[in-house]
């Protein structure tokens, strides 16, 4: 019997509409690369998410590409903005605690606690002149001065990356749209705990508030 032919695994995200040549749409002078929640608890093998048994393979790949994007952004003079969850027990909202309890996971909100090490950046780090935002909620705009800092630099376009596609990347991208920013989600520089969540979140954002692109397309545009 002949051996079965090897099957090529196709990433369903690539079937979604992407901007292949973002070019002038992400001009360095008016664009920020937004790095969402690349932190120990979300991305590291010893973080909280990995401790729940999540497969970190796709997160690792996304962070690889984020590192490349950060380097390209710095070389091109693009503003780099780092978002980071920073929590204390007293800062957890009642809505969050009640939701966790009702879904059967009381205490599950204890993530990225200040002083635990879980709130630290993972494999990325800001430099002087970058934007840094400490946040409590999914959206990086909620309760922060992100909008003010972006406006002060003349930025009207955001290139979105980070973790997770379906939660904080999605929430920040939608909120950016509501704040009148043009957004590009870098589909291969984001990840979620489950592949379906990643793809469905990308599809929803592409349908309603953002354009999708790839890390290679963004790097190419900034190098040009």
Automatic annotation (TrEMBL):
All copies of domain Isochorismatase-like, residue ranges: 31-216
InterPro entries per record: Isochorismatase, Isochorismatase-like_dom, Isochorismatase-like_hydrls, Isochorismatase-like_sf
One Pfam entry name: Isochorismatase
Protein name per the record: Nicotinamidase-related amidase
Record keywords: Hydrolase
